[in-house]
Amino acid sequence: MSHPVLELSEVTFRRQGKEILQGIDLTVRAGEHWALLGPNGAGKSTILGFCGAQAHPSSGTVDVLGHRLGRVDVHELRRVIGHVNPRHGLQSALSVLEVVLSGLTGTVELPARWEPTPEQLERAHALIAEVGLSGRDERRWPTMSQGERGRALIARALIAEPRLLLLDEPSTGLDVAAREQLLATVGELVRTHPELSSVLVTHHLEELPVTTTHALVIAHGRVIASGDVGATVTSETITAAFEHPIRVERERGRWSARSAWHADWQDGDTESVA
């Protein structure tokens, strides 16, 4: 069994006297790709904040890449965690290349007088090509499509060679074509970065890459189900989490969900997940 890169044990979190998370357990091992699923307000972003060393729990323990929160310099730890957030707060007109290079400095804007090495420039160009943006190195952030921004942010997250990649609703704001391009890019990481582990947050099953191996389903700050994605993402667990009768289906590795009373009960290539 591969070693853990992320461990949450009996994690609770309270804010202004309100319990946001209750007894969350999660272990992510090297090479595993987890989906964090649940309705709005379930606590997904809070959990991702712990995974990214952005916050500390009220009780319980969080170990990230072998370091326990509360006993480690989180600023140094954050440098080796890749984070893809479509709400990236860039305001200036950086190029694709500059956005990717900012992953080395861990800043939104490139620091004044900072210069990349030739090796870093070579790696940045290689990652830009890897995410399907060849020839667009000099395209500026304000003129980029949302899909191009998403793929640039994946390259940015990878340039520091992290062992853990966090994706916070990476398909937000994308049309169908851009979403599929981004999911293909994420799926390709299994081949190009085989030791990388990832946690992807979403509340849409259609946004799960085919390479998803495990899932944690939560609601009201509690775990509904956790484990192998095929056993965890089911009509029963998704219905319980979203408190609405949902029919979950899986076709050629991709998931879909719709109201149970509107479900199309056809046979064929579609696998209904009970």
Structure report:
- With 274 residues, this protein is of the alpha/beta class.
- It folds into 2 domains: 1-80 and 163-242, Rossmann fold; 91-161, no CATH class.
- It is 28% helix and 29% strand.
- The longest helix has 17 residues, at 176-192.
**Tally of individual helices:** 8
Strand order of the largest sheet: 6-7-8-3-9-10
Give the fraction of residues assigned to helices: 25-40%
- What distance separates the N and C termini? 29 Å
Query: How would a crystallographer describe the biggest sheet?
Result: 6 strands, mixed
Question: Kindly state the mean pLDDT as a whole number?
Answer: 90
Number of domains: 2
Overall outline: globular
Binned strand content: 25-35%
- Structural class per helix/strand content? alpha/beta
Rg over CA atoms: 19 Å
| Number of DSSP-assigned strands | 13
Unreliable residue stretches: 263-270
Name of the top-level CATH class of the largest domain: Alpha Beta
CATH topology term of the largest domain: Rossmann fold
Quick one: CATH superfamily of the largest domain?
A: P-loop containing nucleotide triphosphate hydrolases
Order of helices and strands: EEEHEEHEHHHEHEEEHHEEE
Named at the architecture level, the CATH assignment of the largest domain is: 3-Layer(aba) Sandwich
Could you give a quick summary of the protein structure above?
This protein has 274 residues and is α/β, with parallel strands linked by helices. 28% of the residues lie in helices and 29% in strands.
